[in-house]
Amino acid sequence: xxxxxxxxxxxxxxxxxxxxxxxxxxxxxxxxxxxxxxxxxxxxxxxxxxxxxxxxxxxxxxxxxxxxxxxxxxxxxxxxxxxxxxxxxxxxxxxxxxxxxxxxxxxxxxxxxxxxxxxxxxxxxxxxxxxxxxxxxxxxxxxxxxxxxxxxxxxxxxxxxxxxxxxxxxxxxxxxxxxxxxxxxxxxxxxxxxxxxxxxxxxxxxxxxxxxxxxxxxxxxxxxxxxxxxxxxxxxxxxxxxxxxxxxxxxxxxxxxxxxxxxxxxxxxxxxxxxxxxxxxxxxxxxxxxxxxxxxxxxxxxxxxxxxxxxxxxxxxxxxxxxxxxxxxxxxxxxxxxxxxxxxxxxxxxxxxxxxxxxxxxxxxxxxxxxxxxxxxxxxxxxxxxxxxxxxxxxxxxxxxxxxxxxxxxxxxxxxxxxxxxxxxxxxxxxxxxxxxxxxxxxxxxxxxxxxxxxxxxxxxxxxxxxxxxxxxxxxxxxxxxxxxxxxxxxxxxxxxxxxxxxxxxxxxxxxxxxxxxxxxxxxxxxxxxxxxxxxxxxxxxxxxxxxxxxxxxxxxxxxxxxxxxxxxxxxxxxxxxxxxxxxxxxxxxxxxxxxxxxxxxxxxxxxxxxxxxxxxxxxxxxxxxxxxxxxxxxxxxxxxxxxxxxxxxxxxxxxxxxxxxxxxxxxxxxxxxxxxxxxxxxxxxxxxxxxxxxxxxxxxxxxxxxxxxx
Length: 711
Prior knowledge:
This protein is an alpha+beta fold and 711 residues long. Helices cover 20% and strands 33% of the residues. It has 4 domains: 22-63 and 444-710, Rossmann fold (3-Layer(aba) Sandwich), CATH 3.40.50.1820; 92-149 and 151-184, no CATH class; 191-319 and 328-344, no CATH class; 345-435, Lipocalin (Beta Barrel), CATH 2.40.128.
């Protein structure tokens, strides 16, 4: 597993810097940017602007007779009682976090395997987040738990006020269903987290004050906190550098909960880390590539994964390989322990995560964007890999594993088949455990995998979901979705909301597999970062052009959508090729790339995009930064930008400033800001349904209501 894997890892705001000094580094300050005041997330002036924009957008979209219908359709799917309640497997039962109409903030609950196998499991509530929020007068959002293995009885519960990523942490007893009186509590919200060393000791990486966070506002120190003592007195056991993206210490722990060592890392960029092991009383730097990570333990073997070729001990392990060393040998000689190859990808293969049971490991892979799951065992000194019997031509994943037994759950999904949950106790092939209901009528639909040619000649695959027999006459409304960053893959999946609200209404859906993503391994990502980031934007445009060329659609009925890095993608697309699209949903985006390192957690993503304070790198970014590329005299496709006030990742300033600049130039646009949700938008299903309906009404008005361009 990668420690650094998504745009979701960032840091809190860094707006208190001297803007004149920044301007001297070539970064726009107040004189060059009249909308810079919108970077203050909760200033009265900024929030007044947000309310005015929200009122304008809602007044227009909500009067559309389809708005209420679409909202109801989305809410029915999101609140559906018969959707699969995905679980984690623990010693005392199966745990699920559930949100619905009656429990908008959610319930943490558990049941038994026997009960879970029935159509109506008997759930026991462990934590009622709605009740907790009401009792404390907070907009609590449950952000997960970190529990002490192997029993996982004691847990540190993470709570966010309003949906932002910064959390508080409180000790909770899963057996009693109560917060532990006098237990571990961290009430100051911060990025970072904890690990349990034992019942009375935590490793804590947080903002401890006094300059203990990086420019990206992530912690770079770790403390050893003993029960009953103040956190301020806890011993510092590892310190990175303020110039790091973040840094911290962790544990090598097997699936029985036994700790075999202490590790540390310094993330010197978003994609590069220096790794250490505590050895003979000091931190020893490990001899491994900066684009490699320590993994888990399989049958007494410690694993590593690498994103680059790793030449060591007279052999070369290819990029994306899984590598192992004998754990006991590693503990004696961390850099000298003999390394062996567990698995290496074939052409167009890449690993996609996995899990470990009591006796085996499982790894999900992609093979030309089709899923497989491999079972991995170390037997008689040899690695044995077998493919798990799961559906072909589907996206597959490891959903849950038990550390006590060989129990494991898998998921399978594709565009048109409801998601399925599979179960095995390790003694035979997986069996269907639960199947999602059909949320849209897919009987008249089909899927094709096509290929576009990018500007530099690269072949870029994409999926097309459409009605069977759809005429390729260029008169079909189509929605093109993409991401293309941070080695994140876009895969076929059962998109219930898209199916019900767009496909059923006659629209086609296109999913692009762009360079910068992870569909074909780390090389697919690394060929489209930093100075080569324009390749991602070129790939997306090429897919749009190919869809028009094939007669799938036409520029007057082609819309684009993306969020976060995908919002930046859509911003670059509609500013570079405004003639190719007639709708653009720019969701929770990065947008002002000359100031992105100062807004939200942007500084942590310099490894992906470059640093605009460095002239050579600024030149890369200036070539595509959407905010600066919006100019007078160009007919843009009336984009819909939306964000969240509580988003402390990409920060609402990006979308706000984009809308404000369009407005200043007299351009058509729409803007909406969810004033309580976090980076994903919406803290409950009602808010999420409303956001979905707003976007779909916009698409229908732009792409379905006026088909003159397709005549």
